[in-house]
Amino acid sequence: MGATGKEYEELLEEFMHAVKQHYGRKFLYSLKTSQIIVERKLLNNIDNELIIQRFQNLKPRKLEIM
User: Fold this and answer.
1) What are the contacts of 2-7 at 24+ separation with CB within 8 A?
2) I need a surface site. Which of 35, 38, 47, 59 has the fewest CB within 10 A?
3) pTM for this entry
4) pLDDT of the chain along its 66 residues, tens only?
5) Can you tell me the distance from the alpha carbon of 1 to that of 5, in angstroms, rounded to the nearest whole number?
6) Cα 23 versus chain centre, distance
């Protein structure tokens, strides 16, 4: 089982500190930028799937012209 809660936060902090020491801040910035790009793509796919589902569930209806 993986670390959770405070244990996870401490492990992540230790990892980020080691990465920053070894590779520098630019590497961390690059990771963050990549994460943002991936998150946007995922959200975009989810939005598109929700839109498609919404329109598939719509029933055609007659329009009345006045």
Assistant:
1) none
2) 59
3) 0.41
4) 577 888 888 888 888 888 888 888 777 777 777 777 788 888 777 777 777 777 777 666 666 665
5) 13
6) 24
